Amino acid sequence: MSNFDVFFDYIQKLSGIMLSEDDKRVFTAHLKPKKLRKRQYFLQEGDVCKYTGFIVKGSARTFRVDEKGHEHILKLSLEDWWLADFESYYHLTPSRYNIEALEDLELLQITNAQVEEFLSPIPAFVAMQEVIKQNYAIANQNRLQAAISYTAEERYDDLVTNYPQFLQRFPLNMIASYLGLSPETLSRIRKNALKS
Amino acid sequence: MSNFDVFFDYIQKLSGIMLSEDDKRVFTAHLKPKKLRKRQYFLQEGDVCKYTGFIVKGSARTFRVDEKGHEHILKLSLEDWWLADFESYYHLTPSRYNIEALEDLELLQITNAQVEEFLSPIPAFVAMQEVIKQNYAIANQNRLQAAISYTAEERYDDLVTNYPQFLQRFPLNMIASYLGLSPETLSRIRKNALKS
DNA sequence: AGCATTTTCTGATACAGGTCAAGTCCCAGC
DNA sequence: GCTGGGACTTGACCTGTATCAGAAAATGCT
After folding, report:
1. Pairwise CA distance, residues A39 & A44, whole Å
2. Binning pLDDT at 50, 70 and 90, where does residue B68 land?
3. Residues A167 and A139 in one domain
4. Are B14 and B25 in contact (CB under 8 A)?
5. Do A149 and B86 touch (CB under 8 A)?
6. Which residues of B touch A145 (CB under 8 A)?
7. Is residue B169 part of a domain?
8. What distance in Å separates residue A98's CA from the closest CA in chain B?
9. A139-184 confidence digits (pLDDT tens)
């Protein structure tokens, strides 16, 4: 199955709308396949995030570097997600984040201008965007709630329940940063979890 | 200025699209004015959030009660915001949150079904929804980032900078809960801030 | 005005999680 | 097959924030 077929499947499933051959041709014409090797950057701090990229294969992390030089991972992304700093993408402001490939990445990427011009007439695409924004807002709300009111252990349990794939695909120090913990604390939580 | 005029102003400003007299009639017909006294609930845990309410006047808090009976405020809302648990509203699932009026509230409320049927044909409304979802997702992302990587003091400074109105309108124990802090810690942070 | 309630502040103490340092394991590259 | 570096763990210690208790100040109610 080609990269575009993966995408067509995804959008049809998410929007509940089938794509015509014409629709598919529009996508094929404007979504630009792009490969990134592990450790390459999709976005660097200070740059404007001009593209969103649909992840066909691979994984990435979105992180910020604080004044003390410590990295904080805001987002971990896998197949079937869109890669971007949406604040920078929609507002065209310089991003505070870096987005780095953690495994070799295959993307289909596009600019917001192209989306407006070519993709917005496609109902399935508009519906997909709706669903994505909704889900993203809800997911962030849930993580926020966890961050302000759960203990470190509860947050980890949550991750195990809701995103078990993360443990397969990402090293523990990345998971720790994603949860807002030091790697040492996560290591201890996991040791305790084994006992019970 | 009537409650509807406040709303018309808001939607025209946010969407960048003027409303026709016909559009206005549609809103007037379907947005239901509703008043809540201080301490009344807009939504209770376990119920489905059937309505979104546009806040014309007043304020509210969205909070969760944990197993130990402690309250955690996820959201503080003022004029010109929409009141709802969007997860429950869009998915029609029972909410984990309570929404309570902190001051007497004047709302214009509507169900999702009515939105789909009557408001979705109005371009300004669709554009407004877009902007709101985007802003909400971005705001949550920023708060999330602050929660996992900032100290208590940095989070408070952030609030002072970005939402100074909150300090005028909400008591400090609510602000503390919103920041994920105990009231005592917030009190100490404020005391320290005075010195420097 | 006077009383009750809520909000805010202060001090003492406890604990979750961070930091630093060292050690083990494991895999990638020569 | 060796080796160097990253990933993960463990232990000792430290710090920020929570918790508990009580006092003071502000607010609301009759």
Report:
1. 12
2. confident
3. no
4. no
5. no
6. 64, 72, 74
7. no
8. 13
9. 999 999 999 999 999 999 999 999 999 999 999 999 999 999 999 9
Residue A18, chain B, CB below 8 Å: the answer is: no
Q: How far is the CA of B173 from the C1' of D27 (A)?
A: 15
Look at the pTM and tell me if it is higher than 0.90.
Answer: yes
Q: Determine which of A64-68, B153-157, B163-167 has the lowest per-residue pLDDT on average.
A: A64-68
Instruction: Give yes or no: residues A7 and A100 share one domain.
Output: yes
Domain extent at residue A132: 3-149
pLDDT digits (tens, 9 = 90+) for B1-20: 688 999 999 999 999 999 99
Long-range contacts of the stretch B5-14 (C-beta < 8 A, 24+):
B6/B56, B7/B31, B7/B54, B7/B56, B7/B108, B10/B54, B10/B80, B11/B124, B11/B125, B11/B128, B12/B124, B14/B127, B14/B128, B14/B131, B14/B132
A18: CATH: 2.60.120.10
Q: Do A145 and B74 touch (CB under 8 A)?
A: yes
Q: Which nucleotide is the nearest neighbour of B171, by CA and C1'?
A: C7
What is the structure's pLDDT at A196? 55
